[in-house]
Request: fold
Amino acid sequence: MSYVPPHLRNSAAGKTTTTPTINSKGADHFSSKHTSRIPSLEKSSNGYSNSARRSSLNYSLPNTVAVPDPAFPHWKPSERVLRLKSEQIEEIRLRLNVDVNVSPGSCPAPSPIESFPDMCLDASIMKDIEKHGYTAPTSIQAQAMPVALSGRDLLGCAETGSGKTAAFSIPMIQHCLAQQPLQRGDGPLALVLAPTRELAQQIEKEVTAFSMSLDSFKTAIVVGGTNISEQRSELRAGVHIVVATPGRLIDHLQQGNTSLSRIAFVVLDEADRMLDMGFEPQIREVMRNLPVKHQTLLFSATMPAEIEALAQDYLTNPVRIKVGKVSSPTANVSQTLEKVPENDKIDRLLDLLVEEAAQAEKSGHPFPLTIVFVERKTKCDEVAEALTQQGLLATALHGGRSQNEREAALRDFRHGPINILVATDVASRGLDVTGVAHVINLDLPKTMEDYVHRIGRTGRAGSTGRATSFYTDRDMYLVAQIRRAIADIGSGNDVTIAMGKTARRKEREAAAAEKEARSELSKLSLVGSTVNVEDKYRHMIAPSMIKKEGAADDAWDD
Reply:
């Protein structure tokens, strides 16, 4: 007999058992793959064996509790959209800068839709869309929302600030409205997993904004650093949508505070970041315990091999959507690299920001919202204090601060009076603060991937922004990558950057090669002689080591 959590023991009595079944007439993505997600007994390519991927815990309601089948009603857009010809659809995607692919043998992806009324959404949702100030879908919304509304699995990749939160929130709410009413003790109808508390809070705020006109529609945020007993009460009372970080959700599932039995709509947001943070086991634990019949949307700013493996295991015939040039610095961010000795960085930062404050005051404009990224928590506090002593309005955001302090810092930065946020990489992803004009890397990150996400805090949703990065000799490999990326953007070429574990491995190999090259170069005298240096090592040579008339000068031109 299955274990019955205490809060369900009374309600379970006398109820009959029903087993959810697959609707053979449903959308084509509900295939047998959902019932056989576990590979062979041999170790898989991503390192998970069969035993490791089989759940030892049951996060569903007990067998004595009836679980209604999820509903996936047939969705149709407006007649105007249905009349579009294939050439017109391709023309729209070209205009939106959207790339769409489907698996061989799958149905074509739904057409992109450039107006919310043509999506035929619930009247209450439309009312909240208008109240939210949305007039037309962004590129990711125009293509991803029809895919999600049609019941298809989706793998989305888009630049930061592209509006993807609304792209999954609105179809998710529409899905919940089609389900049978919640009963006390039921688990949620939809789930969003996010890597950080801040991103989860932002998503929950967006979901709430698009469901304000719906009576008794409830959402819950389940994250660490907050009172777990309050979360427990909310979950047991019944909520339609849960937005959670993976670790805290597993805690609640293990305590029997909620279940996965009624979830039929799942979103993995910033999936690459969740894998970077080590959440892959928790994600897999959740995914393999979901009901057979469910829809999965996976969004990631980058597409490393680990994301592809996750999609292969848990998405069925997904529609792949890519908007814009992904995993590269955006063209609408002006980037400046400045070499500054380590001990002079804070002084140079103060000079820069004090000068900007003076210019803003002289022109009568407010000080531009600025994020300063640093490497360590202690330095974060030190820099914020130094800026405050100069009369600038600054605050610190890092993992060492309490949840209340972090929320207060973000609130003050978003709505005033603070206009400078000094942060560690906790703020580099997912945070959508309108109007950030300048990102400063006081300390460069270790990887190009993290650099892209840091500067992605500005230049969002089509606006322009600035990024200033201080660097030292230890950053030369990353600086060379950034210079190449900037040059490629200027020439209109695509930028290809390795991501995830592949990136880590390549960077270790490159660092070892750089160390070896520097060692060899240090043995050579460049005075009065000509040294031929292989092209792949040119970016490692400091300009002072080479005569100005030497051919290597070209490698350092902006």
